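Consider the following assembly input.
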Amino acid sequence: MSALQCLALTVERGSTEVLRGIDLELAPGEVVGLLGVSGSGKSTLLGTIAGFVRPKAGEVWLQGRMVSSPRRSVAPERRALGVVFQGTALWPHMTAGETVAYPLRRQGVDRSRARAAALELLDKLGVGALSERRPAELSGGEQQRVAVARAFARGAAVHLLDEPTAHLDAAHRRRLLDVLAEIRAASGAAVLHATHDVEEAMSMADRLAVLRAGRIIQAGPPAEVYAQPTDVEVARLTGPASVLIAEVEAVGQGCAEVAIGSRRVPVAVGGAFTGRRAHLLVRPEWAQLGGQLPGTVRRAWYRGAHTDYRLATEGGEVEVRQPGPPVARAGENVTWRLDRAWPLPNGAD
Amino acid sequence: MGRRLCAAGALLLLGLLVVLPLLRLISAVAAGGTVGLAAAFDGPDLAALINTGWTALAVTVLAVTAGAGTALLTERRRPPGRRWLRVAIIGPLLVPNYVAAIAWQRAYGRAGLTDQLLGLTLPGLEGPAGIVLVMAVGAVPLSYLIIAGGLTAAAEPDRERAARVSGARPLRAAAGITLPLLRPALVAAAVLSFASAASAFGVPQVLGSPAGFSTLATRIYRDLNFATDEAAFARVLVAACVLLVLALLAATAADASLGRGRDRPGGPAEPGSGAGSAWALLPVAFALLLLVGLPLLALVLEAVTRAAGLPPTPANWTLANFAAALQGNAFRALLNSLLLAALAASLSVAMGAVVVVTGGRAARAVGAAVTASFAIAGSALAVAVLLVYGEWLRDTLALILIAYLAKFWALGHRPLAGAADRLPADVFRAARASGAGPIDMLVSVVAPLFRPVLAAAWLLVFVTAVHEVTMSSLLYGPGSETLAVVVLNLQQLGDPTVTSALGVILTLLLALPAAALLGLRPARSAL
């Protein structure tokens, strides 16, 4: 029995479809990252699962129970979900302790036990000392932790996180993700984690679902989506990407000969492909400086652990990653090497 | 330098318009001593105080309940045609309260429309019940605006949703989350309703005097304009002072209730779940029809009927009443009203701008004082102004203008201050950093940004001033009547059909331009 299942879910706002035929399944304890730019429908999907939005077509099932369809809608409070809202949605008139105790009180837990459990949860999230404070007296990161504690207080089997780190700076974001991962693992709950941040999605999720214009255009393990995106947009959404248009000739299983300008080089390619002309995705770490291909450095970005170079080559512009500080300046002629590439399935013109 | 000047000007104006008159009023009452107080508070005046208190409370309860109900309907249920529903709910703002009272008489009173058609009259219309009902209907639009604003700002839908997913049933979430979040808006709406109902003069005068029911405001009017005994003026002073205290009490209660930390507005509210049901509209539409539509229709019908008592059928229609209405001093009164309102609007907005430009702590202090002076009952303010400036300016428009400026400064100031608060200071710094000098910045950035809000504030004061009757009825003299005063006098002494015609003119005067404006832009008030 899956923890959460969306079947051909379609949602309309006004007369426009904001979600179209969403099929999505979460196994118990699975974390799925919902990746998409803002406006792609992430919040609407979470809202539909939580019961705030009624679908035009399709169904939502939670732990073997149908909770949403165009005709039937179980009230949000009876769905046994934990939700972290994008803007925290904390209640300004309640202290952190009262806020986290609220879901427990609604389950019928008596006041002192609920307070004790809330305090324990806040402690786990590192904000136990702040339980008497109201939201206005908390920093953004602290507010978000309280919101997380409220969501997990119910002990639900499924959690929906809507951009939980949206308003946090990099350091607070990393710390919040740490405690999120910890508390998630301890609860064993399934999580649908919506974000536009690819690093967040990849590091948190067992599986990614990429949402674009209300459709899931690709789903799979993060490494697979990263290495084998279906098209250039997914490629760009999931990391730095260059696309070479090149003549390709298969020479064996997962290996091909690629013509870049006047030279032909052997390159590892994942999966099968047809046709001679291909849009080849190149991630920066799939290519290196030094080799037989000529190129000119357009720009170099020093990023601490490594340096990214953008090269003008006979096959177009390519980004190449090299450990260490910059070794070549803009305008310098260099040589480079292509180790690996991915022919985009939907890359044809 | 400029700011210092502005601060000095604002303080001087505050002193001349508000502080000095009020001090004079209080000292005059104190001079009368306890004997005067005791004399003023025997029998009828005590009854008037009690009447004022309980009618104002009843109006407050009704207006806040109805305002909250309609606000929840338009902001949460999202019925189809929401925009027009908003316009319909706010629309009655454009009908002066005493004109509404006259319209109710014409619709539901003796020989009114329903009496003629169905033989039905509303029992108690002339008396406290009718006063409360008509004032409550008049107070709903503002209460609705304030609460709807609170719903969208503080009580963003995600907070209710968070309660629902935490396991709270709808009623639980409403009681535990929405209501506490709405408290500031509810308190503000209640204070405004109470203050305006306690100081209301037009409606109690129209509906109360036939039944011998008086409030403090109508007592002041009667004692000042008609009484001849010496004690009358002492009674006026005491009643004015009591109204002042009532306003202070309301303001203090609000302050105590709202003193807690203010909420930072949340993120953008995700639109709610699809379109709500149209069925929820029925009761609201029905109420609007009965409470606003029918009375106005009755008023218009009588205005075009040849003589009072004739059935309002096309055979009896005429436009002669309108011609008659504008004869005599009514036309001059109309000009007086327009001139006064235009002056009051322009000067109030200018004075509001002076306070905003002052900036900093001084502006906040003056702004608070200005807002508080808006809560002072018109009768009290008028009596205070009369005490200070009556000697020199008796029977002139200037006397009325001074009272208007003291009262409506807040209406000119609040929208501007609100807009200035919402604008990040960087907007102006960016203009300077882009190479604009102070004048250049004023023309290219400040003026375009503030133009809509200036226009809204101007209109707000203009509309309120044209409607105003409490202060002008106490301060007018031969030659300085306002149209509202003429309507009120006609209502008591003159031809009912001509009164109705004048009431229609007074309403259309504002309703037509306002309707044009509402048609152009979404119905969001500047308040």
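Residues 240-343 of chain A form a domain with the OB fold (Dihydrolipoamide Acetyltransferase, E2P) fold (CATH 2.40.50.140). Ask yourself how this observation constrains the way the partners meet.
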